[in-house]
Each structure stands twice: as structure tokens, then as C-alpha cells.
Design goal:
mainly alpha, 3-stranded parallel β-sheet, two-stranded antiparallel ribbon
């Protein structure tokens, strides 16, 4: 374990540069997601807490909850919009299954949803968080670590 800076009581699990790189990548990723929002894309999430989390990060786009409908009907409704679809389900077992089914249904309807943002988030956060609703806390933690103001775990 390495101390963050001299005199600090806090120890990081990785060198500070790792967190700085993650923060840089996270900022880029959030910027790309904002581009989708600006293009009036539909963000597909699992629940209301995911919507709240994304709004707390500044995303005020069009959200659709994938868990409150028949997936076939839901997919058809999404396809009818003619808008770009961004799938942002959680990366736990349930979220992965839901994402796979949505992609299959949308492909069958001639729609190619964006899964890249979700995949990049998953690879960036690794196993530290497992869902969209935890994203604001993770981003805040990265910001604190990289700005040198993090004083607790």
C-alpha cells in the first residue's frame, strides 16, 4: 500500500496515477454520454434510482425503465421512436441478462443500440461498483482522491 501524500493517514490500493488516469477516463466517458443526451438519445436503465443517479451527474435526457414492461413491447416502443438507444443496465447478473435480451430484440427490429458506454463504464470501475446508481459516489470518490481532499474510506 502506498500513502497518497506525506503525512496522510489514508492509504490507496493503487498508486495515485492509477486514480488520476481513471478520473481522466471517467470524465471523457461522461462527456461522451452527455453527447448522446444532447442528441436526444434514449437512455435505458433498470430503475428509478438509476435515473436519479444519472440526473445527479447532470444528465437530463430521456430515460426509459426497462424493468416495468414486457421486453418485446418495450423494444418495439423504443424502435418506433427512431432515436439512438443507449443501454445502461447494471453489470450484475440480472443487468447483463437484461442488456443481452434488449440487444437481441432491438437487433431483430433493425436497431443497433449503443452498448459501448456501458462496457467502458464496466471496464473502468472494474469490481468497485456493480450498478448505475453507485456511479455518482464512485465519481465523487475519484474526484476526492485525485484532488487530494479524500480523508476517509
Amino acid at each position: 500500500m502506498r500513502p497518497r501524500k506525506p503525512g496522510s493517514k489514508r492509504y490507496l490500493k493503487a498508486p495515485l496515477i492509477v486514480y488520476e488516469k481513471r478520473m481522466e477516463q471517467m470524465d471523457k466517458l461522461l462527456g461522451e454520454l452527455q453527447d448522446f443526451v444532447n442528441q436526444d438519445s434514449i437512455l435505458v436503465v433498470e430503475g428509478k434510482r438509476d435515473v436519479i443517479a444519472l440526473k445527479s451527474l447532470g444528465f437530463n435526457g430521456t430515460f426509459r425503465l426497462a424493468t416495468h414492461h414486457s421486453l418485446v413491447n418495450f423494444s418495439e416502443d423504443l424502435a418506433k421512436t427512431g432515436k439512438q438507444i443507449v443501454i445502461l443496465t447494471d453489470w450484475d447478473r440480472r443487468g447483463n441478462i437484461l442488456a443481452d435480451k434488449l440487444v437481441q430484440n432491438l437487433h431483430a427490429l433493425g436497431i443497433n443500440p449503443d452498448m459501448r458506454i456501458r462496457e467502458l463504464i464496466v471496464s473502468l470501475v472494474q469490481k468497485e461498483i456493480k450498478d448505475i446508481e453507485s456511479l455518482p459516489g464512485y465519481v465523487e470518490k475519484l474526484r476526492k482522491i485525485t484532488s487530494g481532499t479524500d480523508t476517509n474510506d
